[in-house]
Design brief:
Blueprint (H helix, E strand, L loop, with lengths): L2 H16 L11 H11 L4 H14 L3 H6 L2 H8 L5 H17 L8 H5 L6 H12 L8 H11 L8 H14 L5 H14 L18 H4 L13 E12 L3 E6 L10 E2 L1 E4 L10 E10 L2 E11 L8 E4 L9 H11 L3
Parallel strand pairs: 1-6
Antiparallel strand pairs: 1-2, 1-4, 2-3, 2-7, 5-6
Helix pairs in contact: 1-11, 2-3, 2-8, 5-6, 8-11, 9-11
Bound molecules: iron/sulfur cluster.
C-alpha cells in the first residue's frame, strides 16, 4: 500500500468510528453544509452548533433565508462578528434562489463565484454534496500533512501553499471525496491537534514522520504577525456625529464604514488635525498601531456621510465601535 493510500484509508477508518454526531452531518443537503461552513469560519464547533440550529429552525430552506429581511439575518448572526459574512450569506441565498431556482450549482468554479464562498467552502460543498474531488485545505490540514509527511516549509509562502494544496489533492479519495475531507478536518480537530496531539493512540503514528523523529521536526509555522501603523482621521460635528466612508483601499477593512484611514510610519504631526490618542488593536495576524486624529468641521468630503455616535446600531463592526468609543471622550 502506498503511503498516500495508507494515510487516506486510515483517517477515513478512524473517522467512521469516531466522528462527532453534529447536526449538519444528518444529511448532505448543500444548504445545510454551506451554512455550517460559513458559521464555522467564525466560531468553534461547540458554539457553532447552537447558531446552526437557530438558523435552520428560523430558515429551514434557502428560500426562507433569501426572503428574510436583512436585519433578521444579522440578528441571528449576532455574536459571531464580521457582519459582512452574514450579508454575503444573505446575498448568496438570494442569488441561488433567483438565478439557480434554489438549487446549489454542482460546479466548484460556480460555487467559488458566489459571495462569501472561498476555496475551502467551495471544496467542502462540492466534495460532500456532489462527490467532486476537491480537497479542503486550511490550517488544520496544513498541520496534519506537515507533521505526517515531515514537511517543514512555513505556510506563509506561496510556494509552500501550492505544495500543500497539491499534496492534499493527491491524497483525496476520489471515490469518497466528501468523506475523506470530513475525515481530515475531524482528525485535525480531535487527534492531531495544535497542542498536545494524541500521538500514542493515533492510528497514523507508526508512519508519522513527526512522531518517528521524536517530535524534532519543527512545528508548522503559522503566518507571522505583521505590525502595521495607521492614522485615522475623524471629522466630528457638534451634533455628536462622525463622518464615515467606505474603505476599499485597505484589504482587511474592505467594505467597512469608517473614518478616513491611512497607512502611516508611526506617529507624526498632521497639519490641521489634532492628535487624540494612540491605541493598539489586532485583526487576525495583523497587529495594528493606530493614531487617531480629529477635527471639528461642518464640511466633509463628498465621499463621507455623517453618522451619529450615539446611534444604537448593533451591527456596526467592533473595529468601528472602538473608534467611536475613543472619539466620544471629546464630547
Ligand atoms: S502521530 Fe501525532 S503528529 Fe503524527 S499524525 Fe498522529 S497525532 Fe499527528
Amino acid at each position: 500500500m502506498s503511503i498516500n493510500h495508507f494515510f487516506s484509508t486510515k483517517i477515513q477508518r478512524w473517522y467512521s468510528k469516531h466522528k462527532r454526531d453534529l447536526p449538519w452531518r444528518q444529511n448532505n443537503d448543500p444548504y445545510r453544509i454551506w451554512l455550517s461552513e460559513v458559521i464555522l469560519q467564525q466560531t468553534r464547533v461547540v458554539y457553532g452548533e447552537s447558531y446552526f440550529k437557530r438558523f435552520t429552525s428560523t430558515f429551514p430552506t434557502i428560500y426562507d433565508l433569501a426572503n428574510a429581511p436583512e436585519d433578521q439575518v444579522l440578528k441571528l448572526w449576532q455574536g459571531l462578528g464580521y457582519y459582512s459574512r452574514a450579508r454575503n450569506l444573505h446575498k448568496t441565498a438570494k442569488l441561488i434562489t433567483n438565478e439557480f431556482n434554489g438549487v446549489f450549482p454542482n460546479d466548484y468554479k460556480l460555487l467559488l463565484s458566489l459571495p462569501g464562498i472561498g476555496p475551502y467552502t467551495a471544496a467542502a460543498i462540492s466534495s460532500i454534496c456532489f462527490h467532486l474531488p476537491h480537497a479542503v485545505v486550511d490550517g488544520n490540514v496544513y498541520r496534519v500533512l506537515a507533521r505526517f509527511f515531515g514537511i517543514e516549509d512555513p505556510i506563509d509562502t506561496g510556494q509552500a501553499k501550492k505544495r500543500f494544496e497539491a499534496l492534499a489533492n493527491e491524497l483525496i479519495d476520489e471515490k469518497q471525496p466528501g468523506n475523506y475531507n470530513q475525515a481530515i478536518m475531524e482528525f485535525g480537530a480531535l487527534v492531531c491537534k495544535p497542542k498536545d496531539p494524541n500521538y500514542l493512540t493515533c492510528c497514523l503514528n507508526k508512519s508519522c514522520k513527526y512522531f518517528k523523529s521524536n517530535k524534532k521536526i519543527k512545528s508548522i509555522k503559522n503566518k507571522k504577525n505583521k505590525n502595521k501603523n495607521y492614522n485615522i482621521f475623524c471629522y466630528l460635528n457638534k451634533k455628536k456625529q462622525i463622518a464615515l466612508t467606505k474603505n476599499s483601499q485597505i484589504g482587511f477593512l474592505k467594505n467597512f464604514n469608517l473614518p478616513e484611514i491611512k497607512e502611516a510610519n508611526g506617529f507624526s504631526k498632521k497639519h490641521n488635525w489634532k492628535f487624540l490618542k494612540n491605541y493598539k488593536n489586532s485583526i487576525s495576524n495583523l497587529k495594528l498601531n493606530i493614531n487617531i486624529y480629529y477635527k471639528f468641521s461642518n464640511k466633509i468630503p463628498s465621499s463621507h456621510r455623517w453618522y451619529s455616535l450615539e446611534k444604537n446600531n448593533e451591527f456596526i463592526p467592533n473595529f468601528t465601535k472602538k473608534i467611536f468609543r475613543q472619539v466620544s471622550s471629546l464630547f
